[in-house]
Write a structure and sequence with these properties.
elongated; mainly alpha; single chain; MetI-like fold
Length: 284
């Protein structure tokens, strides 16, 4: 009697493909990440180089995105501003998410008075609006790149802490965590080997959302003149300094706004696609 042998490849579950919207979002986000690294080297002109007397020039072969209020090439300005917009947001979201998640896991694992004190401090910080906190810090200590990163990171760390703590409290009640405690494992082993791997997916989804919020926060500060200072510029300050050309329909106002919009929408599409893919995989 013959028995059919099923190969390991045939027994595997079919891989869930990323939705088209998620693929588009990941592609656009990867493009902007590349521009954040290589954009200044690909720019046709210097960030502050004035190419002529034609201010608010329309789109042309010489200036694919027009010129700004001083006659500077907008394509070069946007490419030079990409590292500030994307790089600062990535650094700030790493500070917020990594710091908030690590503190949350320690608080959930330790419990008792440490968890209570940290949670009350976080509740107090959550009561302060992010933009108001950023305005207070910038007005009191001035504007610099490290200060902007710390301001945005501290402002969004309490939200990351709250989400990570809720996940950690649920995970630490699982049997495998209790078994690790019974074996006498230390807090570092329990948090890094038992809790974190089972929290990573929702934490990554929250990471992407906080990146969006921080991009908008930093762009808003730059639009108010409290972000990146001249001669450097991020996309928010490019919108602010060219706002007088809005009545003329100048591309110098529209193009930085489109860059901000494409970045935020792309990240949102990528997060929705990745989270939806994992959800469908669990349901399947």
């Amino acid at each position: 009697m013959k028995t059919s042998v099923i190969s390991p490849i045939a027994r595997r579950k079919p891989r869930r493909r990323l939705p088209l919207a998620g693929v588009i979002g990941c592609a656009i986000f990867a493009f902007w990440l590349l521009m954040a690294v290589a954009g200044p080297y690909l720019a046709p002109d210097d960030a502050g180089g004035v190419t002529g007397d034609d201010v608010f020039a329309p789109i042309s072969a010489l200036h694919p995105l027009g010129t700004d209020y001083l006659g500077r090439d907008m394509l070069s300005r946007i490419l030079h501003g990409a590292p500030y917009t994307i790089g600062l947001a990535l650094a700030a979201v790493l500070l917020a998410s990594v710091g908030g998640t690590a503190l949350a896991m320690c608080a959930a694992a330790a419990g008792g008075w440490f968890d209570a004190i940290v949670s009350r401090i976080v509740d107090t910080m959550l009561s302060i609006p992010h933009k108001l906190l950023a305005l207070i810090i910038v007005a009191g200590f001035g504007t610099s790149v490290p200060l902007l990163i710390v301001t945005a990171g501290i402002g969004y760390m309490p939200g990351a802490y709250r989400i990570a703590r809720a996940l950690a409290v649920n995970v630490q009640a699982m049997d495998y965590v209790q078994a690790a405690r019974a074996r006498g494992e230390g807090m570092a082993y329990i948090t890094c080997r038992e809790m974190l791997p089972n929290m990573i997916r929702p934490v990554l989804a929250d990471f992407g959302l906080r990146f969006l919020f921080i991009v908008l926060l930093l762009s808003g500060l730059s639009f108010l003149g409290l972000g990146i200072q001249p001669p450097h510029a991020d996309w928010g300050s490019l919108v602010r300094e060219n706002i007088i050309g809005l009545s003329e329909g100048a591309p110098a106002v529209v193009m930085p706004a489109i860059a901000i919009a494409t970045l935020t929408i792309a990240v949102n599409m990528a997060i929705d696609g990745l989270v939806g893919r994992k959800r469908r995989g669990r349901e399947g």
